[in-house]
Specification:
The protein is mostly helical. It contains two helices and no strands. The protein has one domain.
Length: about 90
């Protein structure tokens, strides 16, 4: 199974539990629980799509920025390279 399938299954189980709790407390009717779960799955799907397109690009940009910053800092801490073949 890929990560998206696993997350979808977990989200469905969490939403089913949440719908059961809402029915138990009388907030929604039992007949509306399937509609509630479906609507929430649509919202989760849209959020996943946004994350997949924009969130990953943002994380990659941040990762690249941090790598550049760390490389710059490590170059500052290195002692100067000895000159080879040059007499003072």
């Amino acid at each position: 199974m890929d990560l998206q399938t696993i997350i979808t299954l977990i989200a469905r189980h969490v939403l089913t539990t949440l719908a059961g709790a809402l029915v138990a407390h009388g907030i929604i009717q039992a007949s509306a629980s399937e509609g509630f779960i479906g609507a929430c799955m649509v919202i989760v799907g849209v959020l996943w799509s946004i994350w997949d397109k924009r969130g990953r690009a943002w994380l990659e940009a941040e990762k690249t920025r941090l790598e550049i910053m760390l490389a710059y800092r490590s170059n500052l801490k290195q002692p100067p390279a000895p000159s080879v073949g040059v007499k003072p």
